[in-house]
Fold:
Amino acid sequence: MKTDNILEMRGISKSFPGVKALKGINFTVRKGEVHCLAGANGAGKSTLMKILSGAYQADSGEIWIEGQKVHLRNPIDALKAGIGTIYQELSVVPKLTAAENIFLNNYPQKGLIVDWRKISQLSRDIFAEIGIKNIDVDRPVETLTIGHQQLVELVKVLVQKAKIVIMDEPSATLSAEEFNVLKGVIKDLKKKGITIIYISHRLEELLELGDRVTVLRDGSLVGTFNIKDLDHDRLVELIVGHPLTAGAPNQGVSEGKEVVLALKDVSNHKLKKINLSVRSGEVVGLFGLVGSGRTEVLRVIFGADKINSGSIEFFGQPINPKAYSPTKACQMGCALVPENRKREGLVLGLTVWENSILPALNRFSKYGLIKSRQINTFVAEQIKNLRVKTPSQHICVSKLSGGNQQKVVIAKWLLSESRLFLFDEPTQGIDVGAKEEIYGIINHLASLGKSIIIASSELRELTKLCNRIIVMYDGCFVEEFYPASTREEKILQCAVAGRKGMTGYGSC
Ligand SMILES: Nc1ncnc2c1ncn2[C@@H]1O[C@H](COP(=O)(O)OP(=O)(O)OP(=O)(O)O)[C@@H](O)[C@H]1O
Ligand SMILES: [Mg+2]
Structure:
């Protein structure tokens, strides 16, 4: 049977204990298109793609590739059928070189011996073919940037002659420059007739890159649409089920409120003479290119990185830098929601309940006994407020969708009753609806007098939430802006150029 459709998934259903993740999904993809898959956290996007890549088996339904019905019992079957996947969590082997990763299980041989020279050369050739020249294929993958690691994954599936490439949130961990490279590569692959299935919560990416989009909501199909017929608001409505009402912007703090945190001339291997003071009820944004030092500022405040000189004060009391640690920071009422939630934010082997109470254990225990009933109520409240999609509090957190795991990281710190919240990329991988919820929570925390520092690469997020935004460049504070009276382009320009500030910040 001849068809323009390279892929048809018909009536796909899949259940997990307590969750109907997919309910009879029909998903059709044309050859050579960029087909986006959109939906809120937990809608079923990754599950549908895991079925297509052979990682999960559907409970019912059929998969047809180029007019042939196929049975994808495992990832090898899927690869043979021409389906390559770049997962939400990268799956490269960190200690092997890029070239070794690309040809893993598939090493070209000279007689009985693996031909390492050829592996390197072939890898370089393929990278050159997709326009990437500045990657050292002989270095261990763990020493490459996340952007390059992702390209290694991509090349790996191309070597295996994938006709359909699935990208599950490829941009979530990329810098703006790295994303531009990826965009170029996607356009190039499309020209070569390769079909791409693209998942992202950044709607402007879908609108820019996609030909069509299929929207899932709560495991059901909403529909498939031509991107050119949609705009941002219509897409939001399809994903969430109703139009979004924008939350009220932060009202700002009045002068005279107490200074919660003060950094004075703080320097270390990455930071140069950072001066910052944050008052109670204030929301301060840190903006800058990847590598500008935003995360380091948060880590220093949280005691995760040491300082070489300068001082840090909480409520006017200097801390002893030698004895300062994350445990001390927590005791002083400081909370960090880290960027890399899998490594630093969650214990994947524990349940939602256990993860949520970790930083608040003291509050919920007496004489070594844990007050479980009280915790149940608190955790249930957070799950409801943040709309964490989970069948129960007692399910292992690794079973949650990517975005819902992020919400648990936020929930656990909200339970801790901290006074200073440090958020590093708080809405990475979070759907549009839940983003608004998180913005609402941040505003609410500020109205309660909590202080908040947010590092983000989404300028719009910062202009919406913050009383002031500090632009960083190469470990320095460059300039401070008041979003209420500044155009976004001006802040962006400053971040890119690293122009020296007029506000007396440290020199770069
Ligand atoms: N291995 C699993 N065991 C139990 N439940 C699972 C498993 N994998 C997914 N689920 C559940 O299936 C539902 C769909 O999850 P899925 O990961 O497909 O969502 P998603 O659309 O990719 O969300 P996100 O945008 O957050 O990545 C969720 O409720 C999730 O908790
Ligand atoms: Mg997912």
